[in-house]
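R.M. (postdoc): so does anyone remember the format we settled on? I'll just put the structure tokens first.
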């Protein structure tokens, strides 16, 4: 919806791009050689929802984020965040931007709430806002527990709570799921998804995990070697884009196709094999076929549509 009314809203002078990077370059000068981290990077992040910033290791995600937060200076190009130039007008917007680049230092020997209150004190915010932030990240019931008893995923949710204290209009998160176990990844993903949907905050989140990004983002930009290759909406179709596909071989392919299609799977018949797509476990395919006397001679997982798109654009797996 935002995409459709975008030109109109812009004509009306309404702020619809929360991040605008035009021809942004960054070269790091080392002792022996120069390293080009960003090369005329163009990127627009619209207001609302969750925007994923996807790219392999070393593609320039953290450099871009540090530049747009005014932590390092670009070698060239122009940057606007919340409609204001960076770094020139950063002072006017800094309170509207929450960010998480590295894991913040919390004190293990005091409670989550006290840790958060230390940050809130710096912002002039009281206990009520600390409690609200804990509520948003789902940590209210652990608020008085010492931080040393928290899992990594809980610490990361607390870190996100600290970025939410000042009710930012833009939240910038650099690989927030890094180092978390599968449970922690799900917790952080669900939290981020929720912030983009209900929080009144635009979330810009980087990741090198393709499937992760697909499950929590409305749009993604793909970065490779310091350039943005593509920005695309994925929100409504994210489940379809990450659905796994399996290639199977059986003696009677058309019978197998009917059996699987009747079970609600999307099946296409190729010359020598069947391709099955959907949100299922491979054991379901085996079970359905075996129960009707069809036995597999091959079952291979092939990539999702999103992986295929990524490979087409970036040429290497994320
Ligand atoms: N301070 C620095 N000095 C020199 N080179 C740097 C510096 N920071 C980043 N680089 C280089 O810039 C390039 C982009 O790095 P960056 O950290 O932005 O990538 P990234 O996409 O965040 O990678 P990752 O997924 O590993 O976090 C890399 O080649 C990196 O070595
Ligand atoms: Mg990085």
């Amino acid at each position: 919806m935002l995409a459709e009314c975008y030109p109109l809203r812009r004509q009306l002078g309404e702020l619809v791009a929360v991040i605008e990077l035009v021809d942004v370059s960054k070269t790091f000068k080392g002792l022996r050689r120069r390293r080009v981290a960003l090369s005329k990077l163009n990127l627009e992040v619209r207001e609302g929802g969750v925007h994923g910033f996807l790219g392999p290791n070393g593609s320039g995600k953290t450099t871009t984020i540090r530049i747009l937060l005014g932590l390092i200076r670009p070698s060239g190009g122009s940057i606007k965040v919340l409609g204001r130039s960076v770094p020139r007008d950063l002072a006017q917007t800094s309170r509207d931007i929450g960010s998480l680049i590295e894991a913040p230092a919390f004190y293990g020997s005091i409670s989550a709430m006290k840790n958060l209150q230390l940050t809130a004190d710096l912002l002039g915010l009281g206990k009520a806002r600390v409690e609200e932030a804990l509520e948003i990240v789902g940590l209210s019931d652990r608020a008085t527990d010492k931080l040393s008893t928290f899992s990594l995923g809980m610490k990361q949710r607390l870190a996100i709570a600290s970025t939410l204290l000042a009710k930012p209009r833009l939240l910038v998160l650099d690989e927030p799921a890094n180092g978390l176990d599968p449970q922690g990844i799900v917790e952080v993903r669900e939290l981020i998804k929720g912030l983009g949907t209900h929080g009144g905050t635009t979330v810009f989140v980087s990741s090198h995990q393709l499937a992760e990004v697909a499950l929590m983002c409305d749009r993604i930009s793909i970065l490779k070697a310091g350039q943005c290759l593509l920005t695309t909406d994925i929100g409504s179709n994210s489940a379809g884009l990450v659905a796994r596909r399996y290639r199977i071989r059986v003696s009677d392919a058309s019978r197998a196709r009917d059996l699987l299609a009747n079970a609600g799977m999307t099946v296409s018949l190729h010359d020598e094999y069947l391709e099955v797509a959907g949100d299922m476990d491979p054991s379901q395919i085996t079970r359905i076929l075996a129960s009707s006397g069809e036995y597999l001679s091959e079952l291979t997982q092939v990539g999702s549509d999103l992986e295929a798109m990524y490979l087409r654009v970036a040429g290497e797996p994320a």
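R.M.: ...and that's the designed sequence above, right after the tokens. Also worth knowing: The pocket of adenosine-5'-triphosphate (ligand 1) is lined by residues 28, 30, 35, 37, 55, 57-63, 208 (CB under 6 Å). The chain has a mean pLDDT of 87.
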